[in-house]
């Protein structure tokens, strides 16, 4: 279709198209004004994916992990836990308008909280960023203040719920650790009591020092015993020599100067006695005097030899007794040292039990402290970076958009109506139309006439005129 023909059709049907456009535009305006208004508000929260956990001390997330985490956070925002917290924090069930809407929708049946939770879930739209770690929470509500309050309420409730989910395990761990701390503290006290009681009963305070002293005493006794045993062996040997006779062959007798002097004097006296006996006979006074001198010297020598032999026997008896005493002392000291070692081992076991109990107690107490610090810190990895503000204009209905849609729709319908009427009752608008309709060639084109009848004949804005079947002469 040619542009001039199209323009001609629209120009001839201008009032029809304009009427339809006016009707659709007016309908869009009236409908927009009659529709209930809703306001949109949105808030943006930032989720710090690199926050270190205060309990486990872990961090580091991959991109895939962050996407999964944001998806989980999106589900958390739309969970009943967050929705119910929003309803409770904002006291929405006490809003007269909400109560009226609930009565209208449910006739007062059911729980208003459950109904309102369903309404809120339909009213919010949660979207997460694809490249970052932000989440947008959009709300459509009947009032501007309500939309902003609900959007901010969802952000606050989400932050609180996320913190609860983070600290609740820590709280459970804290309760468990507190119970274990009491248990291990009792074990430490019991182990300390056992150790103290055993040390008091055994008299061992510093086991290493005590055992060192007793070991030194055992070494001293053992050394004395060895010396006494050596002396006993020697004295026993001399005593055996004394028992076999041969007094003059005993080393102590030989080494005794007095005995040797007496033996020498005795030898001289016996020699003198032999000379006197040979010279004077056995009855001479000189012989009797010499004989008495010999007997006196022999008696003195025998007495000294007996004294030496008795001394040897006495020394052997003393060494024997001393050896027995030292042997008994060494045996007793050995038993004492062994007993101390046994007690020291028992003390070491008790000390090890105490150290193990103390170590376990310290570990559990440290974990309890860390968990308590994590709970008291109250740190959240969620921050509101763009709180919702009260919107100035409603988001629906959009008057400008609706008018534009009505305008374009009316223009489209008007054009369709014009084309439809044109196809049903097509007037003559040009020489080409005359040629197509009558099959008669155009001889000339007259200028437009001011006559209404002529205008109708050539296809003006009035009713169409069907061209007559003209017949040319021969």
Automatic annotation (TrEMBL):
<dbReference type="InterPro" id="IPR017468">
    <property type="entry name" value="Chain_len_reg_EpsF"/>
</dbReference>
<keyword id="KW-0175">Coiled coil</keyword>
<dbReference type="Pfam" id="PF13807">
    <property type="entry name" value="GNVR"/>
</dbReference>
<dbReference type="GO" id="GO:0004713">
    <property type="term" value="F:protein tyrosine kinase activity"/>
</dbReference>
<feature type="domain" description="Polysaccharide chain length determinant N-terminal">
    <location>
        <begin position="6"/>
        <end position="90"/>
    </location>
</feature>
<feature type="transmembrane region" description="Helical">
    <location>
        <begin position="12"/>
        <end position="35"/>
    </location>
</feature>
<feature type="transmembrane region" description="Helical">
    <location>
        <begin position="399"/>
        <end position="421"/>
    </location>
</feature>
<feature type="coiled-coil region">
    <location>
        <begin position="174"/>
        <end position="238"/>
    </location>
</feature>
<dbReference type="Pfam" id="PF02706">
    <property type="entry name" value="Wzz"/>
</dbReference>
<feature type="domain" description="Tyrosine-protein kinase G-rich">
    <location>
        <begin position="349"/>
        <end position="420"/>
    </location>
</feature>
<feature type="coiled-coil region">
    <location>
        <begin position="340"/>
        <end position="367"/>
    </location>
</feature>
<keyword id="KW-0472">Membrane</keyword>
<keyword id="KW-1133">Transmembrane helix</keyword>
<dbReference type="InterPro" id="IPR050445">
    <property type="entry name" value="Bact_polysacc_biosynth/exp"/>
</dbReference>
<dbReference type="InterPro" id="IPR032807">
    <property type="entry name" value="GNVR"/>
</dbReference>
<dbReference type="GO" id="GO:0005886">
    <property type="term" value="C:plasma membrane"/>
</dbReference>
<dbReference type="InterPro" id="IPR003856">
    <property type="entry name" value="LPS_length_determ_N"/>
</dbReference>
<protein>
    <submittedName>
        <fullName>Chain length determinant protein EpsF</fullName>
    </submittedName>
</protein>
<keyword id="KW-1003">Cell membrane</keyword>
<keyword id="KW-0812">Transmembrane</keyword>
């Amino acid at each position: 279709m040619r542009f001039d023909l199209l323009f001609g059709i629209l120009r001839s049907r201008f009032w029809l198209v304009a009427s339809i456009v006016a009707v659709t535009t007016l309908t869009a305006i009236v409908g927009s004004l009659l529709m209930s208004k809703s306001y949109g508000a949105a808030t943006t929260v930032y989720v710090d994916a690199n926050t270190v956990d205060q309990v486990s001390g872990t961090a580091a997330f991959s991109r895939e992990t962050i996407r999964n985490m944001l998806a989980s956070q999106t589900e958390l925002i739309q969970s009943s836990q967050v929705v119910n917290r929003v309803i409770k924090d904002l006291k929405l069930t006490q809003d007269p308008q909400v109560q009226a809407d609930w009565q209208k929708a449910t006739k007062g049946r059911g729980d208003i909280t459950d109904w309102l939770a369903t309404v809120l879930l339909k009213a919010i739209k949660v979207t997460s960023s694809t490249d970052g770690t932000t989440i947008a929470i959009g709300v459509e509500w009947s009032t501007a203040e309500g939309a902003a309050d609900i959007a901010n309420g969802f952000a606050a409730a989400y932050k609180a719920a996320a913190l609860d989910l983070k600290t609740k395990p820590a709280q459970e761990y804290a309760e468990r650790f507190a119970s274990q701390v009491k248990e291990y503290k009792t074990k430490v006290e019991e182990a300390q009591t056992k150790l103290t009681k055993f040390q008091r009963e055994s008299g061992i305070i510093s086991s290493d020092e005590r055992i060192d002293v007793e070991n030194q005493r055992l070494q001293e006794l053992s050394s004395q015993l060895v010396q006494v045993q050596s002396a006993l062996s020697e004295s026993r040997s001399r005593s055996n020599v004394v028992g076999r006779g041969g007094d003059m062959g005993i080393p102590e007798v030989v080494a005794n100067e007095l005995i040797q002097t007496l033996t020498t004097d005795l030898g001289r006296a016996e020699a003198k006695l032999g000379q006197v006996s040979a010279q004077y006979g056995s009855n001479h006074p000189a012989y009797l005097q010499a004989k008495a001198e010999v007997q006196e010297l022999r008696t003195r020598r025998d007495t000294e030899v007996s004294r030496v032999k008795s001394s040897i026997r006495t020394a052997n008896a003393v060494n024997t007794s001393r050896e027995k005493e030292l042997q008994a002392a060494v045996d007793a000291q050995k038993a004492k040292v062994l007993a101390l070692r046994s007690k020291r081992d028992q003390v070491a076991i008790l000390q090890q039990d105490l150290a193990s109990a103390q170590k376990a107690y310290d570990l559990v107490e440290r974990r309890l402290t860390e968990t308590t610090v994590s709970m008291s810190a109250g740190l959240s990895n969620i921050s509101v970076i763009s709180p919702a503000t009260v919107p100035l204009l409603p988001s629906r209905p959009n008057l400008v958009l609706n008018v534009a849609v009505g305008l374009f729709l009316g223009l489209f319908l008007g054009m369709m109506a014009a084309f439809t009427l044109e196809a049903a009752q097509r007037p003559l608008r040009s020489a080409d139309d005359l040629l197509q309709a009558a099959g008669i060639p155009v001889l000339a084109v007259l200028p437009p006439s001011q006559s209404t009848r002529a205008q109708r004949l050539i296809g003006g804005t009035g009713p169409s005129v069907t061209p007559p079947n003209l017949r040319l002469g021969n």
